[in-house]
Each structure stands twice: as C-alpha cells, then as structure tokens.
Amino acid sequence: MSPERITIAAYGDSLVEGWGLNPSDALPAQLEAALIRAGQNVRVLNFGVTGDTAPEGLLRLPEVLAARPQAAILEFGANDCYQGVPVEETEKALSDMVHGLLGAGVAVLIAGWRTREDLFSQYADDPMLAGMLPMAPPLFNADYVKRFNEIHAALAQRHGLPLMAHILDPLGEPLPGQASHFQADGVHPSATGARILAEVLAQTLLPLLP
Fold first, then answer.
1. Where in the chain are the domains?
2. Do the beta carbons of residue 152 and residue 165 sit within 8 Å?
3. How far does Cα 190 stand from its chain's mean position?
4. Distance between CA 9 and CA 161 in Å, rounded?
5. What is the 3-state secondary structure (H, E, C) of the chain?
6. Fewer CB within 10 Å, N- or C-terminus of the chain?
7. Cβ-count burial of 71 within 10 angstroms (0-12 exposed, 13-18 middle, 19+ buried)?
8. Which residues fall within 8 angstroms of residue 125, CB to CB, at 6 or more apart?
9. What is the Cα 26 distance to its own chain's centre?
10. Euclidean distance between CA atoms 23 and 27, whole angstroms
11. What string of pLDDT tens digits covers the 210 residues of the chain?
C-alpha cells in the first residue's frame, strides 16, 4: 500500500504565490516537484497572496487550516516593511499564525524576511523601476529595521521551529551574473530562482514530514 499523501501549505505573500510567474513555475509547484523527486508523496497547496502583510495573512488562517495540512511554510514580512506596519503588529500576527498551526498539529517552517536600511533607495535612480518601489513609510528607520529583523529568529527560537532566516538567501544578491535568479524588480524570483528556492526548502522540510 502506498503511503498516504502528505499535504503541505505554502502560506505567504507574492514570494509564495509566484508573482509574475506561471503557476507551474511558482514556488509551491516547484517545491512539490522537488519533494516528489526526493521520494515523497506530497501535494503543496498555494496559499500565497500578493501584497499580503502578516496581519492580512492571519485573516486567512482558517482557510489554511481547513485544508488540513501536515506541514506549512510560513512566509510573511516583505510587505510589512514596504508598508511600515508596526513591528509589534507583524510580530503578533506571525505568533498567532504559528500558534494556530501548531495547535492544529501542523509542523511549521518559518521563512523569514530580512530588510535593509536602503530598501527604498537602491533603485531610486533607475527609470525602468519608477513607481515600483514606494516611498519609505514614516515608521521606517534604522531602529525599525533592527527590530524587524529580529522577529522571525525570535519566533523560531521561542517555539523550537526550523528557520530559513531570509527567504531569498539561497539566491544571493541580484547581481548581473545572477540576473536569471530574479525578475526585473530584483526581489521576486524568476522561474529559475523559484526552482533553487524549492530545492533548498525541500531539504529543510524533509525532516518535518510524517
């Protein structure tokens, strides 16, 4: 008898949903393929919504739990930074999501987001990206960056959960020699980048699966 199929929830924002990509090239589909290649009988459900902050993602927790996943990748943070969501609100929403998932018996992998103090200035002079990066919100300053960048690691440590400190770390910096890893905005992975992330996440997820 073949083992029962495992359900994994990919729960996050545009980096999960696959902004700018065909569904078959997005992270959930590529992660499913990577895990199947590793011998797992899995399906990875795409619970990514472009533009979602952590407080907005929390509102979708009942939908995620209704799918009865055995494991979940929890990935929120980038939009919180772009919108200047107070650190306390982001932290509470992520904590509530973790509590909800763990309470339902779901194994959780936290995929964090590490922001930069120059987040709103790196591409400011690039006319090709005009209007793609917003103005820095009032709360965004060096103290905000420091406190925000501690959220995911503290949450993982508190609950004893595996952590990918920054979801994009496996792709390196969006340099000319690595352009194929990213789309034009230098943030969202290309299909190639999503495949690389999927391979890394698959190896991190394997110990969590039944």
1. 6-208
2. yes
3. 15
4. 16
5. CCCCCEEEEEEECHHHHCCCCCHHHCHHHHHHHHHHHCCCCEEEEEEECCCCCHHHHHCCHHHHHHCCCCEEEEECCHHHHHHCCCHHHHHHHHHHHHHHHHHCCCEEEEECCCCCCCCCCCCCCCHHHCCCCCCCCCCCCHHHHHHHCCHHHHHHHHHCCCEECCCCHHHCCCCHHHHHHECCCCCCECHHHHHHHHHHHHHHHHHHCC
6. N
7. buried
8. none
9. 12
10. 8
11. 457 899 999 999 999 999 999 999 999 999 999 999 999 999 999 999 999 999 999 999 999 999 999 999 999 999 998 888 999 999 999 999 999 999 999 999 999 999 877 666 544 444 444 445 555 677 778 888 899 999 999 999 999 999 999 999 999 865 554 558 989 888 899 999 999 999 999 999 999 998
Q: Provide the token pair at 70.
A: 């055995």
pLDDT of residue 125: 47
In this structure, are residues 13 and 52 in contact, taking their beta carbons and an 8 Å threshold?
Answer: yes
Q: Give Dmax over CA atoms of the chain in angstroms.
A: 60
Q: What is the CATH number of domain 6-208?
A: 3.40.50.1110
pTM value?
0.88
Gyration radius of the chain over CA positions: 17
